[in-house]
User: What shape does this take?
Amino acid sequence: MSELVLGIDTSHRVAVGLARDERVLASRIVGDTRSHVEMAATTVRDVLASGGVRMRDVTRIGVGVGPGPFTGLRVGIATAQILGQALGVPVIGVCSLDIIALRHAAGLPYDDGEFVTVLDARRHEVYWARYDASGLRVAGPFVGAPDTLPMLPAVGPDMPAACPLDAGYLASNLDELPSVGLEPLYLRQPDADLPSTRKSTIVGGHLRVPVSVTS
Assistant: This one.
């Protein structure tokens, strides 16, 4: 049976993608790291229209749960959960860094060695995790200063070895990405509260995002 998968990630910019089975129908990366509330629902509608499908045709939703900024992650996860409840379809959470890593590893020789994926965490810090050559996460995710990263090739949207966080790739490869649940990976306190020590993960509440589910 054919599956229509919607992918959403707001750990960096607003990324939304759509795939039927393993074929990407539409994918968009919009806004900046501070415009998630304004852009998320609109981009979902635009991607569905570009793919020529209706919201009610979606059979699964994959969502990146970070690491990322407090507000950005809440918007993306809440949008996915609201749509999942309205449509009665499963919502699967994945680590956002895993999406980048799997896409990067797909173009590498298997024995090319380990690498790290990196996202901007602001405050002169980065979110990062370590992967083997197949794209399997072996350590992390962490948050820290760039000079704390291991001496390995680094890939990510803002790195010289650029690799976008593409929600179309998330949607088309959802079964290849480890499910990590739907708790957001903040790794530190919200931006309004400066942490005194480095955090591994914290859990926040819920944010309601108005998303119209049309037939």
About this structure: Confidence is low (pLDDT under 50) at residues 192-212. Residues 4-176 form a domain with the Nucleotidyltransferase; domain 5 fold (CATH 3.30.420.40).
